[in-house]
Design a protein that fits this description.
Layout (H helix, E strand, L loop, with lengths): L2 H5 L3 H7 L10 H136 L2 H18 L1
Length: 184
């Protein structure tokens, strides 16, 4: 029902009051029926439509409020995340410098360890070389002694063969037999 249909019964009375043509005044019955119709319409709207509209508006308001609260919570979480990332970015240069220093220190420690191991290996190699040298010298001395003994024996044989006579041989044999006999 629109406003023009609602005001239709009242238009002649309004026209008369405005000083229009000389129409007669509406009767009370012409006013009661539209008024009763209007009051029934208002009652139906108040009883059935208003609670539905109120419920709809209340649920819609609750939805809007909860959506706004969720959006505010998401915005706050996003701002916290942005602040956290900004803080991490601000500390990133310090962290990179710290990592560089730690890696440099680790490299220096590793270098010192490797140099120390190399020095220990070099010392061991020197000791082994000295030991092997001593062993070679001992072996060479033994060979030299053996060679000298062999040379001395050969020289002694040669001298004995040259200077030993048959009489000297008989006398030596006799002395040997006597020494063996005395030892028994």
């Amino acid at each position: 029902m629109n406003i023009a249909a609602f005001l239709d019964p009242f238009i002649p009375a309004l026209a008369l009051a405005a000083g229009g043509e000389g129409h007669h005044a509406p009767s009370i019955n012409d006013i009661w029926f539209p008024l009763a119709n209007f009051l029934i319409y208002v009652f139906i709207l108040y009883k059935f439509a208003l609670p539905l509209v109120r419920d709809f508006l209340k649920t819609r308001r609750d939805e809007v409020v909860s959506t706004m609260a969720q959006a505010a919570a998401k915005k706050q979480a996003a701002e916290a995340l942005v602040a956290d990332y900004r803080k991490k970015l601000a500390g990133l240069d310090n962290e990179i410098a710290g990592l560089h220093a730690a890696l440099r220190e680790e490299g220096e420690r590793e270098k010192r360890r490797l140099v120390s191991e190399a020095e220990a290996i070099a010392l061991k190699v020197k000791e082994d070389a000295a030991f092997l040298g001593e062993q070679e010298v001992k072996i060479a001395r033994q060979r030299l002694r053996l060679e000298m003994a062999n040379e001395a024996e050969a020289a002694a044989r040669l001298l004995l063969e040259r200077h030993l006579t048959a009489a000297d041989q008989a006398r030596l044999a006799e002395e040997f037999i006597q020494s063996v006999g005395q030892s028994r």
